[in-house]
Amino acid sequence: MKSTDINFIERLQRQEEDALEFIVNTYLPLIKGVTYKVLSPLRNDGVMEECINDIFLSIWNNSKKFHGDTTDFRKWICAIAKFKAIDYYRKAMKKMELTSGYTEVDPEKSAEDELIILEDRKELLQLIDLLEPVDRDIFIMKYFLGLKNEDISIKLGLTKASIDNRIYRGKKKLNQKATNLKLGGSVV
């Protein structure tokens, strides 16, 4: 027996895997939409994918707590998606604040040094925006979210060697673009 519009909730609550497959096929666009709405300011597809996977895992793990019909189910998974996405957004912002907070609280640097660092950071973000989307994601994960190359390779489905090469080539591109734009400071 396969999951259908009528029996998928019961089958999900009995932990039948085809029910999860049915839910992914049916509700993935809805889940993506809810997640995108919350996480799009991060501009990080890796975080969005991880969040979506976590949403479906949460639906699977908490399915026995659901009581209602198909309409209620739709509302229930939207609520799960929204709250998971907000959690991911908060975690990502906290990591970014910690990274930027490091430069703001350094007592050994003068206000002028702090200003230069902030300007370098803005210039670096502008330069990173010029990279290809995959390279941009890698740089943000590596240098702003602090992920290891192995973790990035898993999230993006690439080999570690490919990530290493993209980082090496990306640094060269950023260095050239910084030179061409005659940006000040030590950007790269």
Helix content: over 70%
Note the total helix count. Answer: 8
Distance between the termini: 58 Å
Overall shape: elongated
Mean of residue pLDDT?
Answer: 83
Order of helices and strands: HHHHHHHH
> Which structural class fits the helix and strand makeup?
mainly alpha
Largest sheet: none
Q: Low-confidence runs (pLDDT<50, min 5 residues)?
A: none
Radius of gyration: 21 Å
Tell me the strand percentage band: under 5%
Tell me the number of strands.
Answer: 0
General description of the model:
The model has no long low-confidence stretch (mean pLDDT 83). The protein is an all-alpha fold and 188 residues long. The chain is built from eight helices and no strands. Helix 3 (45-61) crosses helix 4 (70-104) and helix 7 packs across helix 8 (160-180). The relative contact order is 0.09. Helix content is 75%, strand content 0%. It starts with 7 loop residues before the first helix and ends in an 8-residue tail after the last helix.
Task: Give the SSE layout.
Blueprint lengths: L7 H6 L3 H23 L5 H17 L8 H35 L6 H19 L3 H12 L4 H8 L3 H21 L8
Helix pairs in contact: 2-3, 2-4, 3-4, 7-8
Task: Describe this structure in a few short sentences.
With 188 residues, the protein is an all-alpha fold. Helix content is 75%, strand content 0%.
Short descriptors:
188 residues; mainly alpha; 8 helices; 75% helix
